[in-house]
Amino acid sequence: xxxxxxxxxxxxxxxxxxxxxxxxxxxxxxxxxxxxxxxxxxxxxxxxxxxxxxxxxxxxxxxxxxxxxxxxxxxxxxxxxxxxxxxxxxxxxxxxxxxxxxxxxxxxxxxxxxxxxxxxx
Length: 121
Fold this sequence. Notes:
The protein is mainly α and 121 residues long. The chain has a domain at 46-106. The protein has four helices and two strands, in the order ββαααα. The chain has helices spanning 28-42, 48-65, 74-88, 94-106; strands at residues 18-19, 22-23. The protein has a two-stranded antiparallel ribbon. The protein is globular, with a radius of gyration of 15 Å.
């Protein structure tokens, strides 16, 4: 099991979905946005705790919207938290961020390959 440069919650509102202790992503964009978030935090663009606070707020908001017990997509909350934090910190314009997110969502599974090229966020 590999270790991450950040500390993920194991339980509670910010805890990501897991199966047998491993992170679970149901769509490729979810893994991509997870990776982008970790990379930005590791690069010092924001503190991980600041992102966690945004994520907890996004999850709480989703829970209020889904009071009927219907599950809500966790990584939609993750994305909302990242967008909010990046906007609050003025790290990227909302238009540029929306375009980049759509670009990441459209990429097919298996598109990530590592040939020494840096991905621009």
